[in-house]
From TrEMBL, chain A:
Mode of membrane association: Multi-pass membrane protein
Keyword terms: ATP-binding, Cell membrane, Membrane, Nucleotide-binding, Transmembrane, Transmembrane helix, Transport
InterPro entries: AAA+_ATPase (IPR003593), ABC1_TM_dom (IPR011527), ABC1_TM_sf (IPR036640), ABC_transporter-like_ATP-bd (IPR003439), ABC_transporter-like_CS (IPR017871), P-loop_NTPase (IPR027417), Type_1_exporter (IPR039421)
GO cellular component term, pick one: plasma membrane
Protein name: ABC transporter ATP-binding protein
Keyword Calcium: no
GO molecular function ontology, one term from the record: ATP hydrolysis activity
Protein localization: Cell membrane
Transmembrane spans: 50-73, 93-115, 167-186, 192-211, 288-312
Organism of provenance: Viridibacillus arenosi FSL R5-213
Automatic annotation (TrEMBL), chain B:
Protein transport among keywords: no
Membrane topology: Multi-pass membrane protein
Pfam families from the UniProt entry: ABC_membrane (PF00664), ABC_tran (PF00005)
Segments traversing the membrane: 12-31, 52-76, 126-149, 155-174, 238-258, 278-296
Subcellular location: Cell membrane
Recorded GO MF terms: ABC-type oligopeptide transporter activity; ATP binding; ATP hydrolysis activity
Domain ABC transmembrane type-1: 16-298
Keyword annotations: ATP-binding, Cell membrane, Membrane, Nucleotide-binding, Transmembrane, Transmembrane helix, Transport
Organism: Viridibacillus arenosi FSL R5-213
Primary site of residence: membrane
GO cellular component: plasma membrane
Record-given protein name: Multidrug resistance protein
Amino acid sequence: MLKAIREPFGYKNILTKEDIQKKRNKKVDRATNWGSTLGHIWRIVDEQRALLIIVLFMVVASSVFSLLGPYLIGKIIDNHIMKAQFAGLSKLIFGLIAIYIGLSLSLFLQNYWMIGIAQQTIYRMRTGLFTKLQKLPISFFDKRQHGELMSRMTNDIENVSSTLNSTFIQVFSSVLTLVGTLVVMLSMSPLLTLLTMIIIPVMFVATRWITRRTGKLFKEQQRALGALNGMIEESISGQRIVKAFSQEPRMIEEFAEKSTKLRQIGFWSNVYSGGIPKVMNLLNNASFAIVAGVGGLLALKGQVTIGTIVIFSEYARQFTRPLNDLANQFNNVLSAIAGAERVFGIMNEEEEKDLASDKVIHQLQGDVKFNNVSFKYEQTDATHTIKNVSFHVEAGQTAALVGATGAGKTTILQLLARYYEVNNGEITIDDTPIQAISRQNLRSQMAFVLQDPFLFEETVRENIRYGQLNATDEEVEEAARKANAHDFIMKLKNGYDTFLTADGAEISQGQKQLLSIARALVADPVILLLDEATSSIDTVTELKIQEALERLMKGRTSFVIAHRLNTVRQADIVFVMQQGELVEAGTQQELTEKQGIYYKMLEESNA
Amino acid sequence: MKTMFSYIKPYKWFAVIAISLMLVELAVELMQPLIIKKIIDDGIVLQDSATVWLWGSIMMLIAFLGFIAGITNSFFSAHASQSFAFDLRNALFKKVQSFTMTTFLRFPTAGLITRLTSDVSQVQQVLFMSLRVMLRTPLVVIGSLIMAFYVKPSLAVYLVIGAPFLAIFLLLMVRKGITYFSSVQKRVDRVNRVIQENLQAMRLVKAYLRGMYEASRFEKVANALKVDTSKALRTMEYIQPILLFVMNVSLLVVLWFGAGKIEQGETQIGELVAIVNYALRMTGAFSMFSFIIVFISRAKASADRMEEVLLIEEGLEDDEMDKGLLEVRQRGTLRFDNVSFKYPQTDDFVLRNISFKCEQGEKLAIMGATGSGKSTLLQLLPRFYDTTSGDIFVDGENVKNWSLEKLREEIGYVPQRALLFTGSIHDNVTWGNTAASIEQVQEATIQAQIHDSIQHFPNDYETRVGQKGVNLSGGQKQRLSIARALIRKPEFLILDDSTSALDVKTESALWSALEGEDATMLVVTQKIRTAKGADRILLLEDGLVSAFGTHEELMESSILYRKIATSQQEQGVDDNA
């Protein structure tokens, strides 16, 4: 039958028999450790537990009230209207009004408080996760995609949030209503109750038939959506390239292809998942008919009253609804718990270890030694990125690191900043091993200008001030002047208060580097690390900055990486790196005279 | 909203059929209390078992009828909503692709992405739901009311007492919902932005020990989100209890007066039961209202955001695409004639009165201080932006007369920040020329000095880059993006400081490999050494041409150029070495 309906719409069948079969033995996206995940959530709920218990009471109250309502109405019909006895009617009516007030109030309060609890819990999870991310080592971020972490912070938490918001109350009240309804029904007419319950096995079979198909479809839909979203993101952020190469038609075509796929899968998952409420509706209506029909026949024999039929017809509805809810919520709860588990997975990641105590503050002089340092990013890597590197830079000296791309220069700086820990050997500052200096202590006296300048969506002023949060406006401007950024900043629309956007389209790449340097200058560090900090800056401007930098570097230890060798000509000492090894070291004079690798590099760059 | 509806139009018949089927379902549901009335009044009260059997079976039958209508409805509504979303998504994507760079500046990247992703699914879902259940909810209310009136107007009247009050109340709630939820959406955007920034800038944050500072910044935005979400959701929570209460009280009023009427013999019990049943159904439908309002408020916000994009009529490249072929007169030549330019929404000119000429096969180096307008100048050539005044001539023809596609076909553009797409190395190199053969690919990569590195990758040319692929160093990315431009065999090769991450040795090998190129080259560079190899040098200063000529001429005439040259004289090795 499906085929006959399918064809006219032009949708291919995407579910194979295997897909349906496979689902039987395979549980997708389920949490592996329920207990600990739920326990974790319970701990986060924390001081709100008392309120949560009050909410539970409210749910009990509203369930009782919603059971009592129809029950009393049935009674009114049977005892008063049928028998034309209106004596106690007003009393019952007032009782009902009280019940309805109670119902509305308890419904409102339980939701009102639950929203508070859920939002507070989500807030704690969100900020807890974010704070945790700040404490994780860089290697954690190397191994994971931003997109994946983003989805952890957004989708997974959102998932837990909506489940906490609605599901918690719903599941609890569904169970209560179910049990309550059953009890009342049984007490009124066991036979009719049994007839109403006929639908339960039918419901289970039908739902299973559907979910077996939707599980696979939902997963496929998610995948198709992901592929589509990835493409959208790339094509929009790479728009300049798309235009330069006139590839718009191809992009549109590729997009239509992915879009079609999503539409195909979307159609089927809509059709199948849309079946569940329809089946429920059918069963609902069928049980209603059974109650009315059979109830009517029983009433003829005087075995049930009309009131009972009225109550049952209402209860039959109340009975299927919580079942329906439970079936729906089951999936939500499963995926929320799986989401929560992923979030807590990050919470359990090992943080940046710091053996050094924060209490001992080292006032650094900046005497840096590498003793036989080796390092690789992954334990499984075949070769070391840094191999047996030893050197000594005295306090106040400027050291230059030169060498081809991939020689390990940036890694040296990252080890010094303790982004990573060495595998072998030792790095010391002022003869103290850096592991004994807390990161807080170390980095507070260090400024690192990174290869790729990053600016926050903030004003120019705040971006510079990032180096030293309590710098005054004058200090910020002073740093900008030294970095030769002041002039261009003043030409911006709002000067220092110009708001920078994510793409930073307002300013050029070189200007971004100038701002990062200003940021380092305002930090006033003991040790200064410059990683290709001036690669996009023209040489005249660079010279001007260098005068400032030279003044600044006096009395500070500096490490400078640059491809342009003249950038490093004021260096006291030059280290030449090659494939992770330190192959030459010495003053410019010495290396030039030696006529080795450095000399050759100089020659090449002057050729 | 009008634009949204125009996308539903092609599927209106499917929608109409879906709605009709839903009405069948609804009718089934609304008939049930009526049948109960029959069973009670004609069957039980009159002691007629045949009637009970008859109406009981009819009830069962129409339940199945409703089911079949419901299932068929799924097909029609799924088709209508999926097709609607499909068209909408494609239209949005096409529109965005046709944006000029100027139009792009008006939208933040993240904003465009959400419009194409979550906003589309939001609206699609609402359509699907409307065709199936959402429209049904108010219809249940209205239908029940009509049926109740049909059964016994004198009793049904009590059900509508609360109606005006409820109508005003709901209208108010919808209004509030739309405002609250759009502010929640803004908070979510803000939270996401802080997360994204931090993921990108993790090294920086750590370098400056700003972890706790960032955490407290995040707490602020997360708290704002919490407060606003609670407010929005809590406001919605007023709806259900109030609706329930009003309906329940109306029900009691019906019972009270109904009892009186039965006593006076004006009403039959079955009628009263039917009306009570209708009232209960209305109450049940009302509990869906708060959910629907939330849904609609969010969809409205999404629809508005998408319309913002769809309704853009100006600043599109479409009309520029299909201009006829030009007769090329002076292939490979380039002329800037008194060109001035400022970015939209800014006051200061970035380029002022730029004039220069380039012959076929010439290599022009462009130099100048940071922010002097070098990159901007290059971006005018493929017409990413149009000049504010003055003209640019490519192959002797004003760029404004070119079809954009033909113009850009002539140009191999290598941007300052190398950007690759998800896919294999091969895919990325052939990006600009899908028809390229393996030999052509290798020729380009050898020229770009990246062939050897590629052979060391795990799957050489089939190695994936981008998401889930290898991490390429900055220098490798730059060389790949140069290869991507070379494979097009362009008339003009534009390099925007695209070798900054290369070490000296690789860079000089690259330049000598490019020696043989026929293309007219425009090269932004910081290095005198590169400039020396150029036929002519254009020196910019604050958006003005400071000097134009050969290296020797500029050494002679330009103070600024000499200054740059001195800034680059290497120590220790004299110039003859």
